[in-house]
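Z., the sequence and structure:
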Amino acid sequence: MLLENREEPQMTSRDSHQNTVVVSVLRSGMDTSLEPEVVDPGSPLIYADDLAAVRGDGVFETLMLRDGQVRKLERHSRRFRNSAMMLNLPEPDIDQWHRATELAAHSFAETVGAPEAALRWVYSRGRESTGQPTGWITVAPISPEVVRAREEGVDVMTAERGFRIDLSQRSPWALVGAKTLSYAANMAALRSAKERGYSDVIFISDEGHVLEGPTSSVIVVKGKTLLTPPTHAGILPGTTQAALFQIAEAAGWETAQQTLTVQDLLDSDGVLLVSSVRAYARVKSIDGHPIGETDNATEIQAMAWQAVTS
């Protein structure tokens, strides 16, 4: 049975501002050597011609902030730098971003104090009129929807991604593998799923191969083996997936990147969606077909949690 759509508690603009911390890292038109600073979350931060807003021309990373500690900082830093390189953005000063992250985490602990939060880096090509990049960090508590997905699992709809798995080889300008700000299609897929009574999506290639979720990596359980689609199949390399596989291998599990179909998911012992902030969510059904829970569920969830927090 599919989950019913549930209304999320509505926060006023004032409440939202009070629960969010914003740190300016790079301001277009200002000295790039300036130190990061906390700014008023209720005040404008970017100009109307910033290419992040106009064209989605930039990259981002979302990190888990838990008990005052930013998790998997180095893994996210490497992917952030790689995404910037794929877009031909100026190489980000990672030390500067780390200082800004420390400032953001400290400010959030002092002003909001929630035990878990999503800390997001945003790096834009900047103002169209100046060509100078902009960058900022936001920190906000995780949503009730994230907690519910961990605790209850998710019912998933499959959706065509609209390209073949060799897209990155044929069209490098498609930026497959970069975590860009152009997430409109991903968010549209999630909205469409929720309108149909589902809570998440797994994208499928034109050939029928499993790719990824809009904000997650797909993990398939077969006995004591964890499988995930290969990164060359046109998906974003997942930081949580990589950490989980490393932990699982140390615990005696087999892991592999493997081309998968929807039938492989239906025939598996279990399916998970993993990501940096949600950590994990068990897939309960795919297109209305029930997915069982593996006998190793407790161990796998413990490893997934370790993957995002250690």
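The chain has ten helices and 14 strands. The longest strand covers residues 58-66.

Let me know what you think.
H.
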